[in-house]
Amino acid sequence: MILAIETSCDDTCVALVTARGEIRSNVISSQRVHDRFGGVVPEIASRQHLSLLPAALSEALELAGATLDDVTLVAATRGPGLVAALLVGFSAGKAVAAARELPFAAVDHLHGHLAASFLEPARLEPPFLALVASGGHTLLADVRDHGPAPRLLGQTLDDAAGEAFDKGARLLGLGYPGGAALERLAVEGDPEAFPFPTAARMRGLDFSFAGLKTALLYKVRELGETEAERRRADLAASYQRAIVETLMIRVRRALEQTGATRLAVGGGVAANGALRAALAGLGVAVEIPPAVLCTDNAAMIASAARYSTASSFPDYLELDVYSTGERPR
Amino acid sequence: MRVLALDTATALTAVALQDVDEEANACLRDVVDLVAVDEPALGARPNHARRLLALIHEVLELSGAGWAAVDRIAVGVGPGTFTGLRIGIATAQALATSAGLPLAGVSTLQSLALGAAHDRRAVLAVLDARRGEAFMAGWSPEQDPLLDEPEWPPQVLSPESLQRVAAQVATQAASQVPARAVPLALGDGAVRFRRQLEAAGVQVPPEDSSRHRVSARSHCRLAALARISAVPVEPEYLRAPDAERTSR
Ligand SMILES: [Zn+2]
Questions:
Q1: Ligand 1: centre distance to CA B222 (Å)
Q2: CATH top-level class for A2-116+294-318?
Q3: Between chains, do A50 and B86 touch, taking CB under 8 Å as contact?
Q4: What superfamily would CATH give domain A126-288?
Q5: ipTM, interface predicted TM-score of the complex
Q6: What residues of chain A score a pLDDT lower than 70?
Q7: In whole angstroms, how far apart are CA A179 and each of A165, A175, A196, A223, A234?
Q8: Which residue of A has its CA nearest to B61?
C-alpha cells in the first residue's frame, strides 16, 4: 500500500491507496484558521500542519484498517506550494520511509491533481485534456500518459481562478473564503447585467484574472455603496460568468488545438455549478472526479506516486522541497 | 539507555547517539558517542531539510547496531527558527512513529545550559532570535540545569531587556553568601549580545568556545530523564506569527 502526505497549502492530508489505485483512506484536516486573515498565512498554516499531522496519520491508518507494516511506498508532495508548509509533510514522509528503509516518491503537486483522474473506481485513461482550476493554480495540460511531465498548454499569469472567486467575494462583502457564497448569491442575479472582461483578446492558452478583479472593484465604486448593495446578486452573477468564460475560452481553444475528445477537470473550482453547466455544453466527454478528489488531498499524491520514479533507501534522504519555477514547463 | 537526539533550532544541524546511565551521565564503558554536526557557510541558510536525515543515517550506520538498539528519540523543541524547529520535530515525530520508539521533546536552551553544569554559578542560555532579539532562559547558582526548570523561564527579549534580566541574575548571585562566581552566558545569542551581557556583569566565553554551540549530546542526557507523554511534541515558538501580532 502507498502512504501519501500532502501539506502544500492549508489542508493537512494523509491517504492510503493501493498499488491498483483504490483509495483505502483519504484524510483531509482543513485548518479553517485563516479566514479572519482573508487568506492563507504561511506561518500559521505550517504550525497547524505540524500539530495536525500525527493525528491525520493515525486516522488514515485506522480508517484503512492498516498499520505501517502494510506500507510499501511512502510519498509526499515536494512542490510547488508554500515552502514552510511543504517542509512539514515532506520531512515527515521522508522520515517515515527512512525508519523502515522503504522507497520514497517525491511528488509534484500538479501531477497529483492530474493523477486524481487515475484513481479507481472512475478511472480515466490518457490521452485527455485536463483543466485544473483551484485557489492555488489554474492550468491546462495535454495529458498523453500517466507520468509526471504532462505538456503544459497554459497557466495563469496572475491570480488563480479560485483566488479570483475569493477576491471578488471579498469585494462584495461576502467574507473569506467566499467563492461558494458568491456562487449562491449569483443564482439570484443576472449574469449579463455587467460586461466584465474575460481577457478574450489575449492570445494563446494562458489565463489572466487580474483585469477582471480590477473591473469589479471599479464597478462597485462607480455604483456607490447603496446601489452596489442593491445589485449585489447581479454583480456576483456577472463576475462569475466572466471567470467561467475566461476558463471556457481557453478550454475551447485547447480542445481545438489538440483535437482531444475528453476533458478532465480538477481543482476546487470544478465544484462550481456555472462552470459545470458551461462544460456540459462543450460537446466532448467531461470527467470530473468527486469533489473530495478535486480539492487538495493526499490520495491524488499517492496516485501520482504510482507513476513517478521512487527512490530507494537511502537515496532520498537529502531531497528538499521547491516552491515554484524549478519544475520544467 | 541509548538515545538518538537531534536539534535544528539554530543554524547547526546536530545529531548525536549516546548510551546514557540512570543519572543521565554518558556511560564510560561501551560508549556509543557519535556526533554529527553540519554548519552552513557564514551567511548561508541552514540546510536542515537536506542534511538532517542523512546525518541520522550516518550516525546509525557508524554505531553498527542501527534502529534496533535505540531506546528513545530526543528532539530539541527550541526556541529557535520556526522552520528549523518544524523540520526537526516533524522528522523526529515521524521517525518515532515509524520505528515504534518513544519521543522526548527537549528544551534547546536547557541543553545549552548543561555546558556550564558543575560550575555552581548562575547560567544564562541565550540564542539569537533574529530581528535584533534574543531567546533566553536563566538558572540560579543553586539550580541544576539538568534537573531544574529555569528560575528565569524561556522568553524573547530585546537587547535592553536582556541586559536588565542579566543584571538581575548577576545581582542575585553576588548577594549570596558566600558570593558566587559571576554568571556565565552561553549560546550564539550570548556572543551576539556580549556587550549587553558583560555590561550587566555576566561572563561570556570567547566566540570560538564550543560551549556556545547547541550539542545534541546534552539532549541525550536530558531525554534520559524526560517523562514521555502520548501528546505530540510541540515546538516552543515563544513568538506569535506576524499575522496574529498585527491583527491584534
Ligand atoms: Zn492544489
A1: 41
A2: alpha beta
A3: yes
A4: ATPase, nucleotide binding domain (3.30.420.40)
A5: 0.94
A6: 325-329
A7: 5, 9, 17, 22, 15
A8: A314
